Amino acid sequence: MTWKAGRRMRAVLALCIALSLSWLSGAAAHAFLVNTLPRAGARFSEAPRQLALQFSEPVSPRSAQVRVRALKGDALEVRELHPGADARNLLATLPSLKPGVYVVSWQVVAADGHLSSGEFAFGVGSEGAIPGLQDNVDGVPLPWVTGSALLLVGLALALGGWISERYVWRGQSVPRAWIGLGAVLAVLGGAVQLVSLASAGPQAVNTVLTGRPGVAASLALLAFLVSALMARGRARPFVGLPLGVGALAVAWQGHLGNAESFWFTPLGLAHLLLAAVWVGALVHLAQVLWSGRATGWTEGIRAGTGRYAGLAAWTVGPLLLLGLVLAWPKFAVPDELWTTQYGRLLLAKVAAALAALALAWLARTRAMPSRTTTPSRLSRLVPGEAVALLGVLLLSAGLVNATPPQALTAANILGAPPAGSAVRAADQVGFLSVYVTATEGELRVQVTQPTGKPGEKTRVWVSGGGPAGSFTLYPRSCGRGCFRAPYEWKNGETTVQVRVTDPEWPGGRATVKLRWPPGPDQAGRLARVVEAMKRAGSFTVTEQALNSLDPSPHSFPLTAETLAATDLYLGGGAEDVREVGRDEEGHTVLSLFVPGSSIWYELHVDGRNRIRRERVVGPSYAVQREIAYPPSQKGDLP
Questions:
Q1: SS3 206
Q2: How would you write 457-477 as a 3-class SS string?
Q3: What radius of gyration, in Å, describes the C-alpha atoms of the chain?
Q4: How many other C-beta atoms can be found within 10 angstroms of the C-beta atom of residue 275?
Q5: Is the pTM of this model over 0.85?
Q6: What is the pLDDT of residues 355-410, one digit of tens each?
Q7: Are 33 and 136 in contact (CB under 8 A)?
Q8: What is the SS3 assignment for 107?
Q9: What are the distances in angstroms from CA 77 to CA 47, 95, 196, 360?
């Protein structure tokens, strides 16, 4: 490679990287529902009048669809759906709601064109169980994957082939690169994405015509169409210009990375452009070597092969480094690499990339001009390397449309439920409520502020002791106010201490006890407790506020109806109802959690299924209650 040609090649690659690093617009591949008003899973004594939805990414309000229905009734009218303070918020007016459970179904198109939908529920009054939160953002939509695959492969063949023609094989009589074929594939990919975008719902045509996803996809389609036409005529040397416009349009559309931070988009674009140059130039090298496989090493093929080797060496290092930087923050714990769809796709991509690197190493050490008399051996190795790299691009098409495990939990402040059987406990320290959950192989901590929302800058330190001895854990973030760490639970009782700090609220050290393994679900027993309490009539409650300025107990009469207004599990919807032991009086101790409202209960239940004592931890409070019944009361069930 001459010094002048090498300088030109480095200038082009530097321009690609500079363009990508300067293009800071872009969004993540999915819009997650991160907050709602009314809050998902919550109960209200008075019906809310406004509906507010907050998403992790900007959404197109013209394509949004929001419906509200009674759980056991018809759909209700939602009026005046409009954007809130910014493009991440939607507001609407609710009709008058009677006591009952209501389900909100939503569907939005994110600013990058990806469709997300789901539903959540809330209650008015104390009757009826509240269903859990649901969404469908964890799937990989096949049309989008197909469109992305055609775009990525087409861009690589066209852009990488153009750079190969202009700077690797410049001035030599070699087969032409598949620039036109690549541009046609990219046109097809853009068309598939436009059709997918338009079919997202009856309002999605507005997004195609006026929204960023549709405008960007149309611009990319036009740019690649111009590239295909230019590749056939005298304007072929200048086809890099519309190809660059098409690449930037795709980046603007936002399909090149799941950008948790603004810098992920330019780094993702740099990663793509470097890969496109490597793959496209390699495919062109395979074409050249295959056409000259029967001849010896001509001076032209020898020089071009050397220039390609320099080009590949210049791109592979930054490419691998960018891949590591982009992939690492998407995982909270290592086992997500093989337990999530995104992780398995990434492992397959890594395997294909390693196969390509192994073939490249063989080519460099066994098939270069200094080691063989003809290019036949290299012509057999290079196509295999090219196929492996094309496989990397196809797997990348799945990755850019899949949901990273960390993206879902980092954006979703509603709190995803733990997988499998779980045991919960809670405590309050300072003004912060701390919820600790034990599941198979994992400990999870969630912290809420008095407002009921997780803190932006909360930090936790976890230690404790149990059947396995003392331990110290270093949890990683699983979202705002959410932390988790791998831990192998042993049978028996484990004491967990959580030290919590938050710059906005006083914290401290919370101590809870968790008994492993989880016992059978006690929802049936809780149902009998609810029935017994509804039949209990009136009783006396002695309540003591824990960690308050006035910790002295206060006694007052209460009825089942008024208790139902404060103890939300009486209306249903409790999760992880477990028996965690017996107290000193022989009462059964039940632990349960009410999602949405983020309230944990510990109930001490007597043989008549009546609550004798309860400990409650919710956002901004922790109380302990003693319940005394009249001597003549019969609260047991047959």
A1: helix
A2: CCEEEEEEEECCEEEEECCEE
A3: 31
A4: 24
A5: no
A6: 988 888 888 787 776 666 667 777 788 888 888 888 888 888 887 777 666 544 43
A7: no
A8: strand
A9: 15, 7, 29, 62
